[in-house]
Design a protein that fits this description.
The chain is an alpha/beta fold. The protein has a single domain, classed as TIM Barrel (Alpha-Beta Barrel), CATH 3.20.20.70. The chain is built from ten helices and eight strands. It has helices at 16-26, 48-54, 81-85, 97-102, 107-119, 132-136, 140-151, 178-192, 210-214, 231-238, and strands at residues 4-9, 37-42, 60-64, 91-94, 123-128, 161-164, 198-202, 221-224. It has an eight-stranded parallel beta barrel with strand order 1-2-3-4-5-6-7-8, surrounded by five helices. Strand 6 (161-164), helix 8 and strand 7 (198-202) form a beta-alpha-beta unit. The radius of gyration is 17 Å and the shape is globular.
């Protein structure tokens, strides 16, 4: 049975001190977390050691917001997989829509990041999703299928998370209807070709939407942005209660 993964992406938020305060407030909220789920938090690179230290033993995994595909070299501003592993990181987000948009990341580069992450024992969280124009042009399935096909070349599907994040729902307050998100997540699982691959939904996930999302058959967790910055909000999301049946 697939284990739900509740992940928070802090993006460019949280100083080390703010991370410490968050951890102190968040830790007691997940002391009795059900065994059928896992919490992952991706802080800024500078806050990784602080988060690892203050949530040690709490059952929270630490993720990086990206990872470079080279072991070392003249790549100013980049972080290698070995640097992350040294600080206890277990997951790495690759292919998020913001690096795709702002830094022109290609599917080929994203694939290299995912493969390098796995080489070092990190679990890649591959983000895929369509823009509003693509959805309105009925290109959603074509776009996501391409991202899966190219992004996962030679990637081991047994050590992988895929996050469906419709670009039009990220940070906009708009949430894809749970039934439609579930449909796309089911397609993604089929395209990956591995029944046990974890497929998350991401895009303005909040305490108000989490229970309905986690009640869907093909949604195995969420990738949360803004709502993961508040310990009470993210604590409620981690302690979701999916509708019976």
């Amino acid at each position: 049975m697939r284990k739900a993964v509740i992940a928070g992406n802090w993006k460019m938020h949280m100083t080390c001190e703010e991370t410490r305060v968050f951890a102190a407030a968040f830790r007691p909220l997940i002391e009795d977390l059900p065994a059928d789920r896992q919490v992952v938090i991706a802080p800024p690179f500078t806050s990784i050691p602080t988060l690892s230290r203050h949530l040690a033993g709490a059952g929270v995994s630490v993720a990086a917001q990206n990872v470079h595909w080279e072991e070392k070299g003249a790549y100013t501003g980049m972080i290698s997989a070995a640097m992350l592993v040294e600080h206890g990181v277990s997951h790495a987000i690759v292919g998020h829509s913001e690096p795709r948009k702002y830094y022109s990341e290609t599917d080929e580069q994203i694939n290299l990041r995912a493969r390098t992450a796995q080489k070092h024992g990190l679990i890649p969280i591959l983000c895929v999703g369509e823009s509003l124009d693509q959805r309105e042009s009925s290109e959603t399935e074509r776009v996501i299928h391409r991202q899966i096909e190219q992004g996962l070349h030679a990637v081991d599907p047994s050590s992988l998370i895929v996050a469906y994040e419709p670009i039009w729902a990220i940070g906009t307050g708009k949430t894809c209807a749970a039934e439609e998100a579930n449909r796309i997540c089911g397609l993604i699982r089929g395209w990956v070709g591995h029944d046990d691959v974890i497929v998350q939904y991401g895009g303005s996930v909040t305490p108000a939407t989490i229970d309905d999302l986690m009640g869907q058959s093909d949604i195995d967790g969420v990738l949360v942005g803004g709502a993961s910055l508040d310990p009470l909000s993210f604590g409620r999301i981690a302690n979701y209660q999916a509708p019976a049946g």
